[in-house]
Amino acid sequence: MQLPVLNNTPSHAEHEAKGGCEASSCGTSENQMDSLPDSIREKVQNHPCYSEDAHHYFARMHVAVAPACNIQCHYCNRKYDCSNESRPGVVSEVLTPDQAVKKTMAVAANIPQMTVLGIAGPGDPLANPERTFETFRRLSLEAPDIKLCVSTNGLALPESVEELAKHNIDHVTITINCVDPEIGAKIYPWIFWNNKRIKGVKGAKILIAQQQKGLEMLIAKGILVKVNSVMIPGVNDQHLAEVSRVVKAKGAFLHNVMPLISEPEHGTFYGVMGQRGPTPDELQDLQDSCSGDMNMMRHCRQCRADAVGMLGEDRGDEFTLDKIEVMEIDYEAAMEKRKVIHLAIQAEMDSKRLEKAEKAQQQKQKPRLTTRPVLMAVATSGQGVINLHFGHAKEFLIYEASPDGVRFISHRKADQYCAGDTSCGDGETTLQVTIRALAGCEAVLCSKVGYEPWEMLEAAGIAPNGEHAMEPIEEAVLAVYKEMATAGKLDAKPEAIRANA
Ligand code: CLF
Ligand code: SF4
Prior knowledge:
The protein folds into 3 domains: 12-17 and 34-324, TIM Barrel (Alpha-Beta Barrel); 332-366; 369-500, 2-Layer Sandwich (Nucleotidyltransferase, domain 5), CATH 3.30.420. It is α/β, with parallel strands linked by helices and 501 residues long. α3 (97-110) runs parallel beside α4 and α6 packs across α7. The protein is built from 16 helices and 16 strands. The structure holds FE(8)-S(7) cluster and iron/sulfur cluster.
């Protein structure tokens, strides 16, 4: 069966570009997937956040029903989205539960690949329990084929666990930035607890205790827990490996270390105070050091609290309240169609997984290369293949090829070179900004690339490559790596790349 083409429409005008990434250890990798018990595999195999593989095929959506919050984070300014699960960006519309249900049904009918409905802000979902649980209650009845997911700071988690379990919520994300209250006091100026504002170390201590208790209670209920942490250089960067160790020991399934977003224009405390976020290398080093302890997620896109579509895209504009109002939805028919499409996607994923395992096995029998690792950027609009023009890419997936194989490392945001905006201020063109975002990469794989970017990429030491259009990403990356090895390009790192990185 022909799978539907995923629509990577331009994101919302307010969508701001931020970095991110993923590897074969990102989310649940294929080998790990094979070793999971059936009950857990069923929960993660079509969840785009919990399975790196699934994020090439399945979409998620958020409904912004939760405006209030019960804590203050130094990286948040609540005129923006919740940074628990998103990058700062204005939520277009705060919804009532009724509007949220209508929007979810409309999206599910029009984007059959949407498998997960999350509530992730713009405040804290569990600080808005009536609105959050009313939405979940209705969706579990009216759209039972959609997985329900929630993201919280954890302060109100212990008292919410029963209710979460009641609505079949299988996936909960807790943002845990520290397990040490001294560090917590540098991140959280206050919490609102028992009708009082509690500041500093005392407040952080309560928050940490509630997060840990909530985590233990969820695990005891058999609910999958992902832990998100915001990496804040000089504040908790040295501490997050310990966080990873602690949450893994308690049974968390996945750890997602995300870079701090602190642009001054967002008006957050950190932004105004000049607290910087991590560089891509710092983030990758930390993710690699935590990965010895547990599964790491590297494909997080720090979504808006009202994001709709594949990770990295935002189709929210297609589903505004006025547009939904006039849509005619036959949800029963849509459910049937969704079922067929999900089965087809699943079959395609399974066959690719088998094929990949066979190739990996064959690869093991060949003499091992002794060449150095190389980073490559890939332009894709989904389905795990190279299918995007360089100039149409709004983000590039970054892969590392090495004698150990190919692994997903991260994604990097880019402005669309072909979108017509050729100047980004500061005298830099969009193309120059994109090429700067690809620093450290030695090749870019896309379906096509124009003459001008071709020349500029080459000048920056990044080899443009349009020869692997429609090929599976990892195979293409490996093929290019081997070509580089055969051409003797992997003996020493080229000067242009060294300078660029
Ligand atoms: Fe949303 Fe979060 Fe559920 Fe995913 S997002 S509530 S687990 S359905 Fe996913 Fe977005 Fe990263 Fe969150 S990419 S910000 S991890
Ligand atoms: Fe903002 Fe979320 Fe922190 Fe609340 S928990 S202050 S909404 S980032």
